[in-house]
TrEMBL record:
<feature type="compositionally biased region" description="Pro residues">
    <location>
        <begin position="87"/>
        <end position="98"/>
    </location>
</feature>
<dbReference type="InterPro" id="IPR018691">
    <property type="entry name" value="DUF2188"/>
</dbReference>
<protein>
    <submittedName>
        <fullName>DUF2188 domain-containing protein</fullName>
    </submittedName>
</protein>
<feature type="region of interest" description="Disordered">
    <location>
        <begin position="60"/>
        <end position="98"/>
    </location>
</feature>
<feature type="compositionally biased region" description="Polar residues">
    <location>
        <begin position="62"/>
        <end position="71"/>
    </location>
</feature>
<dbReference type="Pfam" id="PF09954">
    <property type="entry name" value="DUF2188"/>
</dbReference>
Length: 98
């Protein structure tokens, strides 16, 4: 069962071993869950974690300001690839067959 009070997930730029990397961490955590050299890789993992745990997602810019935020799975930003139906699948919502 998923905890309704899951800690928020953050993507932040941080220094690790003298290099700037993107970290995925939970609110209140002292260590990152994961660390990536690519911001896009960190965002992809953070989105999966926040959706799975029904947690809010905060994506920070390199200056520390929040670029995007979501309150939970229903408000996650989706890419074009996620909203485009695959060939051979119905284009409308389930149960909307003509």
């Amino acid at each position: 069962m998923v905890d309704a009070q899951a800690a928020d997930v953050h993507v932040v730029l941080t220094e690790r071993d003298g290099e700037m990397v993107w970290a995925v961490l939970r609110t209140g955590a002292t260590r990152a869950s994961r660390v990536y050299p690519s911001r896009l890789d960190a965002i992809a993992v953070a989105r999966r974690i926040s959706r799975r745990d029904h947690a809010a997602l905060y994506i920070e810019q390199s200056d520390g300001t929040i670029k995007q935020q979501s309150a939970g799975p229903a408000r996650h930003y989706t890419s074009h690839a996620e909203t485009t139906p695959r060939p051979g699948t119905p284009a409308g919502p389930p149960g909307d067959a003509a």
